[in-house]
């Protein structure tokens, strides 16, 4: 059985001072689906794109990476302009819509469902997320969330934080960045931020901290892993690569998530960090293929 990813697919317009704009397929959930397909997972994506050139470009890109896409293309494809700074980090400006056709996946079941980013917050598609989340809970699928917070899109802090906590209380795995966590829980330490999400009900929380590595935690075990040292091209897709790695590796865990010891968490985090390092070493959301990991 396969993994379902639910969320936006869009065109990243990458702007760097002194260079022409670069166009590339993107969207955090679409990147996670692409990463899973490249790692060898059987993966499907429920998304929303236009019937324009950009939509066709996105669909071809995903299918080349072994992603089965569920979509009814119409209208214009969403875009995200990524403004790159000198250190490779990106800020985004969005032109969005999110209204997937849930009837395209009626009757299906999956071993895992991943969702997040703008799609988890933006109506009318957020209601589709809720419905599929309930279907996943009913079928005991592994459920994962990456909020990938975009403050200019998801609304006021209070309602958006409440929405995040509602979703986090219903899933098994939450992955978020330190930037996400600081926006959700300003003033709390990294450890306290993770503790709060664990108390909501998530069985595993992974908090990424860029070049400072990552913190992975269950209710009974916690580890910090180091980031791999690479020359950074840009950070686009790094978190999505980390997320795809987690979902991929959790398809065949050695033990239940809540029973993982520190060694198991460390292996999980180191694998994700290694794959994320491949992504940041090259331009755009160019996530690694399984063949790049060696024998």
Question: Can you characterise this structure?
Answer:
- With 295 residues, the protein is an alpha/beta fold.
- It has one domain (3-97, 106-287): UDP-N-acetylmuramoyl-L-alanine:D-glutamate ligase.
- It contains nine helices and 13 strands.
- The protein has a nine-stranded mixed sheet with strand order 5-4-1-8-9-10-11-12-13, sandwiched between helices.
- The chain is globular and about 50 Å long.
- It comes from Brevibacterium sandarakinum.
- This is Fructokinase.
Major sheet size, sense and barrel closure: 9 strands, mixed
**What name goes with the CATH superfamily?**
Ribokinase
The CATH topology annotation reads as: UDP-N-acetylmuramoyl-L-alanine:D-glutamate ligase
Describe the global form. Answer: globular
CATH class: Alpha Beta
How many domains would you count in the coordinates?
A: 1
Beta-strand content estimate: 15-25%
CATH architecture: 3-Layer(aba) Sandwich
Order of helices and strands: EEEHEHEEEEHEHHEHHEEEHH
Please report the distance between the alpha carbons of the first and last residues: 26 Å
Query: How many strand units?
Result: 13
Strand order of the largest sheet: 5-4-1-8-9-10-11-12-13
Mean of residue pLDDT? Answer: 93
So how many helices? 9
Gyration radius (Cα, Å) is: 18 Å
Unreliable segments (pLDDT under 50, ≥5 consecutive)?
Answer: none
Structural class: alpha/beta
**Relative helix content:** 25-40%
Domain Carbohydrate kinase PfkB: 3-288
InterPro entries: Carboh/pur_kinase_PfkB_CS (IPR002173), PfkB_Carbo_kinase (IPR050306), PfkB_dom (IPR011611), Ribokinase-like (IPR029056)
GO molecular function: ATP binding; kinase activity
Keywords: ATP-binding, Kinase, Nucleotide-binding, Transferase
């Amino acid at each position: 059985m396969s993994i379902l990813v639910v969320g936006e697919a869009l065109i990243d317009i990458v702007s760097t001072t002194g260079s022409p704009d670069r166009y590339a397929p993107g969207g955090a959930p679409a990147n996670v689906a692409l990463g899973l397909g490249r790692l060898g997972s059987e993966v499907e994506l429920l998304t929303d794109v236009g019937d324009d050139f950009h939509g066709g470009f996105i669909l071809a890109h995903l299918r080349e990476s072994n992603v089965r896409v569920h979509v009814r293309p119409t209208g214009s494809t969403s875009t995200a302009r990524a403004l790159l700074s000198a250190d490779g980090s990106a800020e985004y400006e969005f032109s969005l819509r999110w209204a997937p056709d849930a009837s395209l996946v009626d009757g299906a079941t999956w071993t895992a469902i991943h969702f997040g980013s703008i799609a988890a917050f933006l109506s009318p598609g957020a209601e589709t997320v809720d419905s599929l989340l309930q279907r996943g809970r009913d079928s005991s699928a592994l459920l994962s969330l990456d909020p990938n917070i975009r403050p200019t899109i998801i609304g006021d802090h209070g309602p958006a934080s409440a929405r995040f906590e509602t979703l986090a209380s219903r899933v098994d795995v939450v992955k978020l960045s330190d930037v996400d966590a600081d926006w959700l829980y300003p003033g709390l330490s990294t450890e306290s931020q993770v503790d709060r999400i664990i108390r909501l009900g998530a069985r595993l929380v992974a908090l990424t901290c860029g070049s400072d590595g990552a913190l992975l935690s269950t209710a009974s075990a916690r580890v910090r892993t180091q980031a791999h040292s690479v020359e950074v091209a840009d950070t686009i897709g790094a978190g999505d690569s980390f997320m795809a790695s987690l979902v991929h590796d959790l398809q065949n865990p050695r033990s239940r998530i809540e029973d993982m010891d520190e060694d198991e968490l460390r292996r999980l985090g180191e694998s994700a960090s290694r794959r994320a390092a491949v992504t940041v070493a090259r331009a755009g959301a160019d996530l690694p293929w399984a063949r790049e990991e060696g024998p």
